C-alpha cells in the first residue's frame, strides 16, 4: 500500500508594509517641488520683462525686494499687515457668526426664507465698495466702518451657502428622524447642522477671499494704515515697488489665512465630510 504524503508549500514571505506616511511623502514632495518651480519661473519671467521697462512702470523683483526690506525696517509693512489682518478677521468672524444662524433659520422656516429672500437677493448684488461713503458717514472714518464693510461682504455669502446646505439635506433622513421621535431642535442639531458643515466651510472660505477685495477699497478711501493705504501712499510718492510689495503682501496673507482655515477645518471637521 502506497501512502501519498503531500506537503504544503512553505508560505511565501510577506514583505512588510511601509507606513502610509512614506508612501505619501514622494507625491507631496513632488507637489511642493512643482509649486516652487512655478514660483521661480514666474519670478524669472517678471525679471526678464522688467528689463524692457522703467522702474516706475514695472520694477524688477530685486527692486521690489529692496522696497520690502525698507518697509520692514521702518515698521510700515508690519503695521499695515497687522491693521488689515485685524479688520479682516474681525469683520469676517462677525459675518460667519451671524450668517450661519440666519442661513439655518431660513432653511428651516419657509415663511422666514420668503420674507428675507428679497433683501438677500437685492443686497448680494450691491458691491461693498458702493457703501464705502455711507459707512464713513454713518460710522466715521475709524475702524468701525472698515469692519462693517467686511461684515457686509461676509454675511450674505455665508448665509446663502448655509441655506444651500440646509436645502440639500436628504429628506429621507429628516423623515427618519421624525419617525424616531426627534424634536425639531434635535433634528436640527443631529441631522441638519452636520450635513450643512461642508457648505458653511465653503462659504467661509469664499467670504475670506472677498474680504480682501473689500479691505483694499475701504483702506484706500479712508485709512491711515493698512495694506490698501500703503498701496495708495506708494502711488502718491511714485514708489511703484511699494505697490508691488503691498500686492504681494495681500496675496501671501490671503494664502496664509486660507491655508490655516483649510487645515483647521480639515482636522477638526473631517467627520462631517470636510476634506478640502
Automatic annotation (TrEMBL):
CDD domains: TM_PBP2 (cd06261). Residues 1-25 are annotated as: Disordered. The chain crosses the membrane at residues 29-49, 88-110, 122-141, 147-169, 212-234, 240-261. It is found in: Cell membrane. The keyword ATP-binding does not apply. PROSITE patterns: ABC_TM1. It is a multi-pass membrane protein. Residues 81-265 form the ABC transmembrane type-1 domain. Coiled coil: none annotated. Keywords: Cell membrane, Membrane, Transmembrane, Transmembrane helix, Transport. It holds the Pfam family BPD_transp_1. Belongs to the binding-protein-dependent transport system permease family. This is ABC transporter permease. It comes from Micromonospora gifhornensis. The lineage of its organism: Bacteria, Bacillati, Actinomycetota, Actinomycetes, Micromonosporales.
Amino acid at each position: 500500500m502506497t501512502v501519498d504524503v503531500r506537503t504544503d508549500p512553505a508560505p511565501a514571505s510577506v514583505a512588510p508594509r511601509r507606513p502610509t506616511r512614506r508612501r505619501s511623502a514622494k507625491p507631496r514632495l513632488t507637489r511642493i517641488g512643482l509649486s516652487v518651480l512655478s514660483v521661480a519661473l514666474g519670478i524669472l519671467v517678471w525679471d526678464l520683462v522688467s528689463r524692457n521697462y522703467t522702474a516706475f512702470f514695472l520694477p524688477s523683483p530685486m527692486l521690489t525686494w529692496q522696497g520690502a526690506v525698507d518697509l520692514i525696517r521702518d515698521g510700515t509693512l508690519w503695521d499695515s499687515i497687522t491693521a488689515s489682518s485685524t479688520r479682516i478677521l474681525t469683520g469676517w468672524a462677525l459675518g460667519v457668526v451671524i450668517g450661519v444662524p440666519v442661513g439655518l433659520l431660513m432653511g428651516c422656516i419657509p415663511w422666514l426664507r420668503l420674507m428675507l429672500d428679497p433683501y438677500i437677493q437685492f443686497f448680494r448684488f450691491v458691491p461693498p465698495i458702493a457703501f464705502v461713503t455711507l459707512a464713513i458717514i454713518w460710522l466715521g472714518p475709524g475702524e468701525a466702518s472698515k469692519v462693517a464693510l467686511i461684515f457686509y461682504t461676509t454675511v450674505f455669502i455665508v448665509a446663502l451657502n448655509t441655506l444651500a446646505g440646509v436645502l440639500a439635506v436628504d429628506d429621507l433622513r429628516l423623515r427618519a428622524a421624525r419617525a424616531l421621535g426627534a424634536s425639531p431642535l434635535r433634528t436640527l442639531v443631529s441631522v441638519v447642522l452636520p450635513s450643512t458643515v461642508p457648505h458653511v466651510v465653503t462659504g467661509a472660505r469664499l467670504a475670506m477671499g472677498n474680504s480682501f477685495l473689500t479691505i483694499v477699497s475701504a483702506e484706500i478711501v479712508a485709512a491711515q494704515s493698512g495694506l490698501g493705504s500703503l498701496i495708495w501712499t506708494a502711488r502718491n510718492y511714485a514708489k511703484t515697488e511699494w505697490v508691488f510689495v503691498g500686492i504681494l503682501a495681500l496675496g501671501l496673507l490671503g494664502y496664509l489665512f486660507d491655508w490655516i482655515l483649510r487645515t483647521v477645518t480639515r482636522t477638526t471637521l473631517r467627520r462631517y465630510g470636510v476634506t478640502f
